[in-house]
Amino acid sequence: MQQSYESMTTSAVLPARVDLHARPAGVVVREACRFAADIVIAINGKRANGKSILEVLALGATGGTVLGLTASGDDAADAIATLSELIPQLA
Amino acid sequence: MESASPNGLTQILLVSHSARIAEGLAELLSQVAGPDVSIEAIGGASDGSLGTDGGRVMSALQNAVHGSGTVVVMDIGSSILAVRAALSELEPEQLEKVFVADAPLVEGALAAAVTASTGAPPEIVAKAAEEARNAAKL
Fold this sequence. Notes:
The complex is a heterodimer of chains A (91) and B (138).
Chain A: E1 6-13, H1 22-32, E2 38-43, E3 46-49, H2 53-59, E4 66-73, H3 76-86
Antiparallel strand pairs in A: 1-4, 2-3, 2-4
Chain B: E1 11-16, H1 19-33, E2 39-43, H2 54-64, E3 70-74, H3 78-89, H4 92-95, E4 98-101, H5 105-117, H6 122-131
Parallel strand pairs in B: 1-2, 1-3, 3-4
Helix pairs in contact in B: 1-5, 2-3, 5-6
């Protein structure tokens, strides 16, 4: 399948007991860094570069929060698929 | 002591006035960045008091050149002087592998370690650390 530059948005819910604190945030950011696409994580009007641990931590997302995920770039579809599967499984 | 990173990841060297700050930060970095990033923590003076052990900083930097690159993150004052003094003793080809990040210690090291875990080269890892100067917390 040929992929071209694209932008995709979806949402993913943090598990009820998992805040996006240091360790889970590290898991998300490291996964995001595997993709070339730009990745933005948004909650309540706050936006973070999904590849920046400090920005993701500053979101202060708590368990059960719906995270908006936007990926822009050649592998945006893969990035969205991977992250939206990963986030609800964080422990 | 051999500090060459077996997995090719950029290594992180922490220099603090306090052994407990350095070691606690290393523990935090391993949690967030995962176990693959090599982190060396140097804290305190040679007698265990608060301060800087220039000799340890020097030998860590001399070992660092065997790896694929090292990013140094420091706290304040004499930590910075000790790193500068050690750098002045390195050969030019050794200096190519050592990047000193002008960054806040905790946030800079956190950004550096996570970036290093992705396989980024030391110049990119150092840049990530320096971006911590502008990162909002709230």
